Amino acid sequence: MKILNYYLFMKIFVLLIILCFGPTLEVCAQTFKYKEGVASSIVAFSTTCLDNTNKKLFENHSDIESVVVWFEEGKPSVIRINDRSSKGTFYDMAFKGDVLDLQNKYGKLNFTFPRLSVSKLYGMEKQNFPTHWVFTSKIFPDSVVQSYRLNSGEKSLIFTGWAARYNGNYEDIEKQIGDEVQNSKNTVVLDSIIVLQGISEKGTSPMTLNDLKLIVGKKSSFSEAALRVFGNKENKWSSGIYDSGVNGRSNIKFFIQLHKNGKVTIVPSKYLNALSLD
Questions:
Q1: How far apart are CA 6 and CA 239, in angstroms?
Q2: What is the 3-state secondary structure (H, E, C) of 108-123?
Q3: Long-range contacts of 83-86 (CB under 8 A, 24+ apart)
Q4: Which tens digits make up the pLDDT trace of 222-269?
Q5: Is the pLDDT of residue 77 over 50?
Q6: Using CA atoms, how far apart are residues 61 and 80, in angstroms rounded to an integer?
């Protein structure tokens, strides 16, 4: 175990931040003990500012209480919508299906990356053990709380686990959908994108998806073919897995594109989103 005494450093550090941000700042820091394999917070601070940029979002969706945004390299990487009817719904900004679903539900959202350049603060992250910064913004109707946290260890998974897995090859499903579209009465093939969502139940045996529905895109011979194929009882999925190793009930989304040449490509969601289903 290694012991780092930050008392003197933190006096300078806190003074600097207070001068920059004034009374809206909250800082949490203490003597830090590093233990290998255990992620811990070394220092954390947050700032609150008045901001009603996303006020329309809360006016149009009165059930939303707040929106939390995690940033990677200055861009939103994960978004959680906190509403009164669920524990929160996560959106993976690296997955096109989630990006389109979010836009389809809430329109254009505006996010501001936390403004403090923490990487230049005395080289604080340069220690002889792994460290990483976590940047988040929590958005309310009239304000934004920007949080900065320096943690020891490697970055951990923000999501609660891994999405359901298809027991087969997605290329087979792509071909099934493509063949159905080609054989339909509508012979005109246009470049089209849809997003489907289904529910994978909890269990140890492979099963079909329930409650399949089109959540992005227009109803067409393409979307109907996709729903039929994904709902085929011959196609089986294994339950999503929580990061604890336990399987559970969760939703899964599919970004599906029909190209002009008739080829279909499918990208499934990678992470488990069970919070809104518990």
A1: 46
A2: CCCCCCCCCCHHHCCC
A3: 86/275, 86/276
A4: 999 999 999 999 999 988 888 778 888 888 999 999 998 889 999 999
A5: yes
A6: 15
